[in-house]
Specification:
CATH architecture of one domain: 3-Layer(aba) Sandwich
Distance between the termini: 56 Å
Number of helices: 14
Largest sheet: 6 strands, parallel
Strand order of the largest sheet: 2-1-3-4-5-6
Structural class: alpha/beta
CATH topology of one domain: Rossmann fold
CATH superfamily of one domain: Response regulator
Length: about 475
């Protein structure tokens, strides 16, 4: 049954008054002239987009922001649950705040995000860190003003884990981190339940935003001067499946591509089981869509793909890749790979290496398997040692480095359109990025940052290009 989600400014109707109350409370609690917030976000771009909405709400309540916690009246860690390393960093950084809390008892420390949707993590946080005053999960983001007010006004600890998947809350203010690169969420949650992945458990089922709201936000960003816009979703290819009369993802990005302006449009992440020829054709025929396809394959072994519950095999994946190469000249292909999934053998791993050599990716995001509590893979037999997995991992890196270096070298002598992103350091060296998401270094003035330029490539490393502005 198709379900219609609530998408009409329900935030403004219920939460604005709490922002006004927070503003009044902070006039007495602030340490300086204005209340200061420190926000640190871990993990994926969706977490970054959530963080921008938290900042938007805090800005509306009168807060300013600093990049260190020392002077902050409110400290928030926006957490990630995908990797154990990210969780360990959060616990370490929260523990380091104990002395700051003792010195400034009125400083409120809070945590939110995917880690907090895991019961065992939230319970550990409650027992081990009594100076953390506010904890809420991904589903309670729209309630943040109310929860913050409750914590500030009562002085009591507030812990909320709300797993209601039925609503998409609109109208939340946004304070974007970038001036010309921006994130645009089009959907939330995931229905795929890959056996290694915690995301469906912490972000819930798929819920798409209405296309007219997405188009309106895209126009606002383009009119505000954003040059590089990335559409976000755990599986953007399944956009609209839970909405009535919704365009497909390919139709949605075609509508955005039709908006006039000088910009690039990107998206992530695509799931191979839902990636269609229609989508590839849309990219090929577009004016603004980046000629870059990030399509995670995770493993080259059909046996491991089945154990991962990925719903495609090697043949289907390569069919998509070959069609993309045929329709989009010079397409830049990137992917995610997991090394050492439970039960994987070296023979399985060699199939991953052979797929990498066949596709010749521009770059890869590579991970050694990390078990996540609550996922099916966490209880699977895993006989291969960590040391052996590390050897495989290094072998994969060596293969990909060779491929990337070959690709970069082939681009010497070409002229590439780039978006200049920032200053690298000394000597007026600027970092820029191609439509295919390859980093380019060139010498130039700061006034070029945030603009499109052409660069003639004169040199190439393993992962980056170097050239001159022309």
């Amino acid at each position: 049954m198709t379900e219609k989600f609530s998408t009409v400014n329900d935030f403004n109707d219920s939460q604005d008054e709490y922002l006004n109350l927070i503003y009044e409370i902070m006039q007495d609690r602030k340490r300086g002239e204005k209340p200061i917030a420190f926000i640190r976000t871990y993990g994926c771009q969706q977490n970054v987009a959530d963080g921008e909405r938290i900042k938007g709400m805090l800005q509306k309540a009168g807060f300013e922001f600093e990049d260190k916690p020392d002077n902050a009246d409110f400290i928030l860690f926006n957490t990630c649950a995908v990797r154990e390393h990210a969780e360990d960093r959060v616990f370490g950084n929260v523990g380091a705040l104990k002395n700051l809390k003792l010195k400034y008892p009125r400083t409120l420390i809070a945590l939110c995000g995917c880690m907090m949707e895991q019961k065992h993590i939230a319970e550990r946080m409650y027992k081990s860190f009594p100076y953390v005053g506010l904890v809420f999960g991904t589903h309670a983001l729209h309630q943040f003003p109310e929860l913050l007010y409750r914590s500030l006004s009562s002085g009591k600890r507030v812990y909320v884990r709300d797993n209601d998947d039925s609503l998409v809350h609109e109208g939340i203010p946004v304070k974007r981190d970038g001036a010309f690169k921006g994130w645009l969420p089009i959907m939330y949650g995931c229905n795929n339940f890959c056996t290694y992945c915690i995301v469906p458990y912490v972000r819930g089922r798929e819920r798409s935003r209405e296309s007219d709201i997405i188009l309106c936000e895209a126009r606002e960003m383009i009119n505000s001067g954003y040059k590089d816009i990335t559409l976000l979703g755990q599986n953007v290819n399944s956009y609209g499946k839970n909405l009535k009369n919704s365009p497909s993802f390919a139709e949605l990005i075609k509508e955005i591509d039709d908006i006039d302006g000088d910009y690039w449009l990107r998206f992530m992440t695509s799931h191979p089981k839902d990636c269609t020829k229609e989508l590839i054709d849309t990219i090929a025929q577009s004016k603004h869509i980046s000629k870059h396809l990030h399509l995670p394959f995770q493993s080259g072994s059909d046996r491991i793909l089945k154990a991962m519950n990925r719903h495609y095999d090697r043949e289907k994946y390569l069919g998509i890749i070959n069609y993309a190469k045929e329709r989009i000249p010079d397409v830049s292909l990137t992917s995610d790979v997991i090394v050492g999934f439970p039960g994987e053998t070296y023979e399985d791993f060699k199939q991953t290496l052979s797929l990498i050599r066949e596709v010749e990716y521009t770059s890869l995001f590579t991970f050694i398997y990390s078990p996540r509590v609550g996922t099916p893979a966490a209880s699977m037999d895993d006989p291969i040692s960590a040391a052996e997995k590390s050897k495989w991992f290094q072998e994969l890196l060596d293969v990909q480095e060779e491929i990337a270096a070959k690709r970069c070298k082939s681009m010497i002598g070409t002229t590439q359109k780039v978006l200049v992103e920032n200053e690298k350091g000394k000597d007026n060296i600027l970092n820029a990025r191609t439509s295919g998401n390859i980093v380019v270094e060139a010498k130039g003035g700061k006034e070029l940052i945030g603009t499109f330029q052409n660069v003639k490539i004169t040199n190439a490393g393993n992962w980056i290009l170097k050239g001159d502005f022309v």
